[in-house]
Design brief:
Elements: H1 14-27, H2 32-48, H3 54-72, H4 85-97, H5 110-146, E1 151-156, E2 159-165, H6 166-179, H7 181-191, E3 193-194, H8 210-216, E4 221-222, H9 226-231, H10 235-261, E5 269-270, H11 289-312, H12 327-350, E6 352-353, H13 355-360, H14 368-377, H15 382-390, H16 401-406, H17 419-448
Parallel strand pairs: 3-4
Antiparallel strand pairs: 1-2, 5-6
């Protein structure tokens, strides 16, 4: 006989059951703790509004704590016959508490359960991502600080263009990652709204306290309109994936630079052998395979984002099972981005800089623009100066490369990188995100450890 929450006394055809639930059940293994947290908050709220007695709430909360311990040990997982983690937890709760457990679904549906699970997951994931991102930005900034005045060619159109520096190059990526904190914060804000109480998207005729549930789970507040909350399924997860895609754009560009600049033709940088793999046929090969995968997996996340958007476009309002197809891409994108940030941070911390080779590559034509500006400062119209230098661009003398770098003194130029200011930005972001983490963590820890002995006075159910 079916164990499904919607069971009406018949079994589903096995192929239909597998097709609808097998993949989803496997993905739900990532959401177990979040579903238990949501059930803890919902049960407490049901007690506070008089729909659970104190003894019922106490038994449910204690059982959910036990289930959380089982989940942490990997002993609580859904199967296709269960459909999802919500079903597993409810059945386990009923087994532990009897009729009390049968009341846990009062005032909610699986729709708003999965909504709250995914929003809690998204918040937790973003807090993990930001830690790795800021650590990677620090590694890049460290590379920049150690090589602030190391000259290197700057390239446009893949051709040598103007004088640059390793400091400018490396710190540009540190700052790019800091810019990526903005869409990450926007995604966090969107997901920081509790959907619990939206039920099947139309509310319920019960005195639910949605503000209490939001507070217990560390949300900024409830997602107000219940249909908006339901319709945001997939949309808010896509916002996370889009933010991760922007990070991956920066990581893929850095990876491509390093792959190019470590070739024997450039030889600007070197990497230790422990960061390289090899060839099964060519004994001399040392390949930066991990950076090639960073470059490739940026496209994977862009594809996952497109998959999510394509799934959502044109769906009618209210719940549709199509939404299930946005869960996997979110989880995959989170894992890929976190690992990719870690890989780039590792390379940035260990990369070697071949200063002699970099200086040798700073050939005369890099200073053609400098010469045109020298003429312009002497009163020659820039367009005339441009044509004079263009007649023989290789005739310029490189001179003192560091002095040339230091002459570029305007904001953000090689001579005015303000690396301490970049470091301060990293610390500022760390403080902002720590406040978010502390609020979220404190709420969840308080919820889990809630003292059932000090619960409100016994209230008969229904009053």
């Amino acid at each position: 006989m079916s164990t499904k929450l919607w069971s009406k006394g018949y079994d589903v055809e096995p192929l239909i059951e597998r097709y609808e639930a097998a993949r989803n059940a496997a993905m739900d293994a990532e959401l177990i703790q979040y579903d238990i947290w949501g059930s803890m908050a919902h049960a407490r709220m049901l007690h506070e509004v008089g729909l659970l007695s104190v003894s019922e709430w106490q038994s449910i909360h204690a059982a959910l704590r036990d289930l959380l311990a089982l989940a942490e040990d990997g002993a609580l997982r859904p199967s296709a016959s269960d459909e999802d983690i919500h079903t597993v937890i409810e059945h386990a709760l009923i087994e532990k508490t009897g009729d009390s457990g049968k009341k846990i679904h009062t005032g909610r549906s699986r729709n708003d359960q999965v909504l709250v699970d995914l929003r809690l997951y998204a918040k937790d994931a973003l807090l993990e991502i930001i830690d790795v991102l800021l650590a990677t930005a620090e590694s890049l900034l460290g590379l920049a600080s150690a090589n602030e005045w190391t000259p290197m060619p700057g390239y446009t159109h893949m051709q040598r263009a103007m004088l640059s520096s390793v400091g400018l190059w490396a710190s540009s990526y540190a700052e790019a990652l800091l810019d990526d904190c903005v869409p990450l914060a926007a995604a966090y804000t969107l997901n920081d709204q509790s959907p619990l109480g939206s039920a099947a998207a139309f509310g319920v005729p019960l005195p639910l306290d949605r503000e209490l549930v939001a507070s217990l789970l560390g949300f900024a507040g409830p997602h107000h309109n219940v249909l908006t909350a339901a319709n945001a399924r997939g949309k808010f997860e896509t916002a996370v994936t889009q933010a991760l895609a922007l990070i991956m754009l920066d990581l893929s560009k850095w990876a491509q630079d390093v792959l190019l600049y470590t070739t024997s033709e450039y030889d600007f940088f070197s990497v230790p052998q422990e960061l390289c793999d090899g060839s099964s046929i060519m004994p001399q090969k040392r390949n930066l395979g991990a950076l090639e995968l960073v470059r490739g997996r940026a496209h994977t996340i862009i594809g996952l984002q497109s998959q999510m958007l394509s799934t959502l476009a044109g769906l009618p309002s209210g719940y549709n099972m199509d939404y299930q197809e946005t869960k996997g891409p979110l989880i995959e994108a989170v894992h890929i981005c976190a690992e990719s940030l870690g890989v780039v941070g590792l390379y940035a911390a260990r990369i070697g800089v071949n200063q002699a080779q970099l200086e040798a590559a700073c050939s005369a034509e890099l200073f053609a623009t400098d010469r045109a500006y020298e003429l312009a400062r002497d009163g020659v119209p820039f367009r005339d100066a441009y044509r004079q230098v263009a007649a023989n661009p290789a005739a310029q003398a490189p001179g003192d490369l560091v002095a040339r770098l230091q002459a570029r003194t305007h904001t953000g130029a090689p001579g005015h990188l303000d690396l301490p200011g970049v470091s301060a930005r990293i610390e500022s972001e760390r403080a902002v995100w720590k406040a978010r983490r502390d609020h979220f963590t404190h709420a969840i820890e308080t919820l889990i450890s809630m003292d059932t002995v000090t619960a409100r006075e016994e209230t008969p159910p229904g009053h």
